[in-house]
Amino acid sequence: MTAPGWPPGREPARCPVHTRNEAFVPLPPQAVWARLVDATAWPSWYPNARRVVLTGAPLLGPGVEFRWTTLRVRVRCVVDRWEPYRLLGWTGRAVGSSGHHRWILTPAPGGTRVVTEETQTGLLPHLAAPVLTRSLLRWHQRWLDGIAD
């Protein structure tokens, strides 16, 4: 059975890399959502995002394709999970890997509980899972920290 929110084949148990970070953000879900879907603004508050380009839309949305550079790797993505103010996810491909990244927003007293998770598979994740996992955990925490700034 597919875990809620994961595309088939991208479930954590089927991928050599799985990261999960969680934080409380003192903003309502609508404000967190607005920051996440405005992908071209990510570089202003998340230093690991560069050269974000959306195809045919000003904001992320269902089926929107985008390219960006993260961890010095150019990634091509498509938004394939979309439940406004609750779930945003995309599947991406880069040389040597493919993966799925998702954001889960849950209203909480005084703000939003935000979970970000990523799974990766491919040659690079199979060869360098421990190093890649540590790096993703560190950068995803900075991404979470940037949402509230």
Entry summary:
With about 150 residues, the chain is an alpha+beta fold. It contains 2 helices and 7 strands.
Architecture overview:
This protein has 149 residues and is an alpha+beta fold. The chain has one domain: Alpha-D-Glucose-1,6-Bisphosphate, Chain A, domain 4. The protein has helices at residues 29-37, 123-148, and strands spanning 17-25, 50-55, 65-70, 73-83, 87-94, 97-108, 111-121. A seven-stranded antiparallel sheet has the order 1-7-6-5-4-3-2, covered by helices on one side. Strand 4 and strand 5 (87-94) form a beta hairpin. The longest helix is centred in the C-terminal third of the chain and has 26 residues, at 123-148.
Could you list some keywords that capture this structure?
Alpha-D-Glucose-1,6-Bisphosphate, Chain A, domain 4, 23% helix, alpha+beta
Order of helices and strands: EHEEEEEEH
Report the major sheet.
Answer: 7 strands, antiparallel
Question: What gap, in angstroms, lies between the N and C termini?
Answer: 38 Å
Order the strands across the largest sheet as they lie in space.
1-7-6-5-4-3-2
Secondary-structure class: alpha+beta
- The percentage helix is 10-25%
Shape: globular
Tell me the β content.
Answer: 35-45%
What's the CATH architecture?
Answer: 2-Layer Sandwich
The helix count comes to 2
What is the secondary structure topology, with strand pairs?
Elements: E1 17-25, H1 29-37, E2 50-55, E3 65-70, E4 73-83, E5 87-94, E6 97-108, E7 111-121, H2 123-148
Antiparallel strand pairs: 1-7, 2-3, 3-4, 4-5, 5-6, 6-7
